[in-house]
Amino acid sequence: MTVIQASEMAGFSERNGLKWLKRFREEGKQGLQDRSSQPHRLARSHELGFVVEAVGRRRRGQAAVRIASKLGVPRSTVGFWLRKAGISRASALQEKEPPNRYEQEAPGDLLHLDTKKLAYFHHVGHRATGIRHAKNRKAGYQVLHVCNDDHSRACYMEVLPDEMKGTRPLSSRGRFCMSRPRVSRSVSC
To answer: In terms of domains, do 87 and 116 share one?
Structure first.
């Protein structure tokens, strides 16, 4: 029986059949036993000491290129180690400042005032109807006024026709919601 015939009967290629024949000739019946599929060597298996040394040098501020040349390891490997440690970028080495947060001691000490211009339409536009020449006569803008207390996080919003100086953003209901003993500061965004 030829190798080709035996390979076809077993259900694999001629090349695979030749591989098994070679194993049988070199190792006998032991060569035909199942083997582990684990690779004989790993491309990135370095001693843990190298990795620790590279990370330590990076924390002291050395560049990855210099670390690679000192350790005799490829620069890509050092870059891989540093990315895994989360310190490949220079910004990761600097201490982060704590967020600048503040809170006022009493309600009404600081109010945040903001406005948002909102468009409104009386009719559906040309994208929905396909009619471009129709005029939307009642189209325009409204302004959303927002007032937020920094301490209590109480918020009042009101939609008004404009954002001019004469427009009063807080109606009687808004004044009741935001009533505090005193307002010492306000911030407009």
So the answer is: no
For the chain, percent helix, then strand, then coil, each to nearest 5?
A: 40, 15, 45
Domain extent at residue 27: 3-31
| Angle CA 85–86–91, to nearest 5 | 140
Question: Does residue 184 sit in the same domain as residue 119?
Answer: yes
Strand partners, 186: 111
The one-letter code for the residue type at 108 is G
Kindly state whether residues 25 and 56 are assigned to the same domain: no
* Count of the separate structural domains present in the chain: 3
pLDDT in tens, the chain (189 residues): 888 898 889 898 999 999 988 999 999 988 888 888 888 876 666 678 889 999 999 999 999 999 999 999 899 989 999 999 999 888 888 888 888 877 788 887 888 888 899 888 777 777 888 887 777 777 788 888 888 888 888 888 888 888 777 776 655 455 544 554 455 555 555
Cα–Cα separations (whole angstroms), residue 146 to 64, 113, 161, 175:
51, 6, 14, 13
Q: Is the separation of the CB atoms in 46 and 55 below 8 Å?
A: no
